[in-house]
Design a protein that fits this description.
mainly beta, Jelly Rolls, 3 domains, six-stranded antiparallel sheet, flat
Length: 349
């Protein structure tokens, strides 16, 4: 292909009987290979109703393959921007006047550390993005970023982004995605690595954005319906030995149903223990037993400490057609009481 445009389309919004559409022209520099493209949805927002997109289309020539098309981010993509400065070279890597190099013969772990400590700690409960400007001396250069809990040796938990390829001698903006890292993780070490050796690349204007939470609708849940031998008294929950393996607690506020999570969601609550850590999880079902499918369960979350504090557990996006009219909570840890209050289920919009 020599030309390629990608359109988003929404219904008629101005009364002329025609759908609203707008295109973005895609870069065709790297032919004959897979290319990753990030398009800011704000590019379309002056014409297309982003809350009502029903179609996309492409225009161009030649053969083109598309895979893994998805929409992401915190609504408008708003968030806190942090300016990074990758001036701390290590392991033999070099940077002079924003020109970065990873020479042969240097350490395999050679790279560049952000030296603007004011941006720490970073967190990405709703994901994030890194934007920067890049250009090469003529040869493509792959780079990646790594987030660590703290500098070596106390690095875990950590997260490494996918590679991004810098192409062309003209400066242009690049974007790399940071998926949600959960609510518990923070990062106070940010590193840049060149994957390609012996080829210089000019990189400037690094910005790390911590995406805001998407907007959503909040529902107050009441997990007061114990079953299978589980007990709850004055917000103190217990899963005693000898009860049914499926013992748990049902939400009894029927006013929140049906729930849907086409864009994901979260469950927030306050929790404290009597001194022993307690793991719990949540399950959403189509309807109460036996008509439960489709259903899904959250990952476990561990409640620690005798002082009450807020916990959040993510709800991954579910099929848009799926609704849920049964919300259950299960204790994984037996014979240890846990106090849980202020349940709020959020469905992202």
């Amino acid at each position: 292909a020599t030309t390629l445009k990608f359109f988003l389309i929404s219904p008629d919004g101005n009364g002329d009987g025609a759908a609203e559409e707008k295109a973005v022209e895609l870069d065709l520099t790297n032919l004959g290979q897979w290319n990753s493209v990030n398009i800011d949805l704000s590019h379309f927002s002056d014409v297309v109703d982003l809350n009502n997109v029903f179609q996309f289309k492409v225009e161009g020539n030649g053969s083109v393959y598309f895979d893994n098309i998805f929409f992401y981010g915190g609504g408008s993509g708003s968030g806190d921007d942090n300016s990074a400065q990758f001036t701390g070279s290590f392991g033999g890597a070099t940077v002079v006047n924003n020109v970065f190099n990873f020479p042969s013969g240097t350490e395999a772990w050679a790279g560049f550390a952000n030296e603007n400590a004011a941006i720490y700690p970073l967190s990405f409960p709703h994901g994030g993005i890194i934007t920067f400007t890049g250009q090469t001396a003529g040869t493509d250069v792959d780079i990646k970023f790594k987030f660590e809990f703290k500098p070596h040796p106390d690095t875990e938990p950590s997260y490494t982004t996918s590679n991004v390829t810098i192409s062309g001698t003209e400066a242009k903006e690049y974007t790399i995605d940071i998926p949600s890292q959960g609510t518990e993780k923070t990062f106070s070490s940010l590193l840049l690595y060149l994957v390609t050796q012996d080829n210089s690349v000019t990189l400037t204007n690094f910005v790390v954005r911590e995406l805001d939470a998407p907007s959503g609708t909040n529902y107050s849940a009441a997990y007061t319906g114990s079953f299978g031998g589980a007990t709850v008294v004055n917000n103190v929950y217990t899963f005693p030995t000898g009860t049914e393996a499926w013992a748990g607690f049902a939400n009894e506020n029927a006013g929140i149903y049906p729930l849907s999570f086409s864009k994901g969601g979260k469950i927030k609550f306050n929790g404290s223990t009597a001194g022993v850590d307690v793991s719990i999880n949540f399950k959403f079902e189509f309807k109460p037993h036996p008509d439960t499918e489709p259903s899904f369960s959250t990952s476990n979350i561990t409640i620690s400490g005798t002082e009450a504090k807020e916990y959040t557990i993510d709800i991954p996006a579910q099929e848009a057609a799926n609704t849920f009219s049964s919300a259950l909570m299960y204790l994984v840890t037996q014979d240890a009481s846990v106090t849980i209050t202020d349940f709020v289920i959020t469905s992202y919009e």
